Amino acid sequence: MTTGTDQRGAAEVAARTVQERWANFHRYGPWGLLGVGVVLSVATAHVVGMDRLDWYLFVPLSVAAVVLQLWWGRAMRTRPEPSRAGVLYYWVRWAIAFVGSLTNPFYVFYAACGYFDITRLVPARQIRPGLFAAIVVVAGSQSGGLPPDNSSGWILFGGLLAVNSVLVGFMGHINNKEQEAERVQIETIAELERTNTALQQAMDENAQLHTQLLVQAREAGVADERRRLAAEIHDTIAQGLAGIIAQLQVVANAPTLEVAREHLDRASGLARHSLGEARRSVHNLSPAALADATLPEALKKTVAEWAGRTGVRAEFTVTGTAEPLHDEIEASLLRIAEEALSNAARHAHATRLGVTLSFMAGEVTLDVRDDGRGFDPIALPARTGTAGFGLDGMRARAERLAGDVTVESEPGGGTAISARVPLVRHD
């Protein structure tokens, strides 16, 4: 993909190339046109009828033109454009060309230099007079030399003067249009470059925001897990330990051995149950399925195990190009999938279930659909504030990652749960 910087660089290189070519023409072009004018004047001297006076003018003028070009070749390296030296050079050159064209019309080639470099040599207020002066010399030479011999010659001179003025005006208009188009192109490329820079800055800021969201989600997840563990310890393990202590106290005061054994069996059962609850709580701290597997692999295994436990036909599908995601993204999506499957097992009474993980531009979606009995989402009770269970828990996990969870269901029409979170790649 070509960026604004590349386009601007190419445009600048092209502009520099054109400027270098014009600089070479302005440096050597007058020499070439002077040489053509002098050679053609000498070659056509007998045809034109140059007399001794013409030669007396022609030779000093040509020498003066050479001296002028040598002086300007050194002056143009240090003088700004336009400058007083440039104005002097232009009008002296025009005077030499004008007088030279009186001796021989072919000397007019030297005057034609003014068509090409006048904007570089003279200020804006002198451009039109300078062009008109050059046109006078060219039209006079085209009509047979100045001054015309008769009225017909003057008419021809006037017509050629008008034609040359129109042509020069048209060429100047075209040149201005091209310069304007070049200026607009450079400005457009510069604006594109600024836009690309702003877009890159926005993307960088977006990436930073994603990182901050993940940090906040991790911190919020830690706090939620602590609250959940505290509640579970209080509701299960602590109660189980209290029950064990109570049974052991009864054993200490048991009137018979049979009563003591009965209460010891109850204490042992409570201990095993508490151990199971402790293991379950530890397991829920972090998804073990992601320890040595990618998210698609972990989801596929989870869905297969769920299908084996429930006897419901379940399928897992991945769409798009799977990418390694940030740990917090993968853990949250797996927990959402587990909760959705748990809800389906408890409430859906489905015969088929499908789980789809979709990688798209900028986001990842997890869809869990079943053909169960469904329910009315509007009739659900308000959130209870418990972020670890049911739909509230799924929504809380997604929202901590700047995502969301949507539920579509109706009685008898199955249920579709869709979780969308940003696609943040693994560091």
From TrEMBL:
Main subcellular localization, coarse class?
cytoplasm
Q: Where are the transmembrane segments?
A: 28-48, 55-72, 92-118, 154-174
Which of UniProt's keywords are assigned here?
4Fe-4S, Cytoplasm, Iron, Iron-sulfur, Kinase, Membrane, Metal-binding, Transferase, Transmembrane, Transmembrane helix, Two-component regulatory system
Gene Ontology molecular function? kinase activity
Q: Which residues form the Histidine kinase domain?
A: 333-425
Where found? Cytoplasm
Which reactions is this enzyme annotated as catalysing?
ATP + protein L-histidine = ADP + protein N-phospho-L-histidine
| Cofactor(s) listed | [4Fe-4S] cluster
In terms of InterPro entries, this protein maps to: HATPase_C_sf (IPR036890), HATPase_dom (IPR003594), His_kinase_dom (IPR005467), Sensor_HK_TwoCompSys (IPR050482), Sig_transdc_His_kin-like_C (IPR004358), Sig_transdc_His_kin_sub3_dim/P (IPR011712), Sig_transdc_His_kinase_ChrS (IPR017205)
Q: What is its EC number?
A: 2.7.13.3
Functional description taken from the UniProt entry: Member of the two-component regulatory system NreB/NreC involved in the control of dissimilatory nitrate/nitrite reduction in response to oxygen. NreB functions as a direct oxygen sensor histidine kinase which is autophosphorylated, in the absence of oxygen, probably at the conserved histidine residue, and transfers its phosphate group probably to a conserved aspartate residue of NreC. NreB/NreC activates the expression of the nitrate (narGHJI) and nitrite (nir) reductase operons, as well as the putative nitrate transporter gene narT.
- The protein's name is Oxygen sensor histidine kinase NreB
The taxonomic lineage of its organism, from the top, reads:
Bacteria, Bacillati, Actinomycetota, Actinomycetes, Kitasatosporales
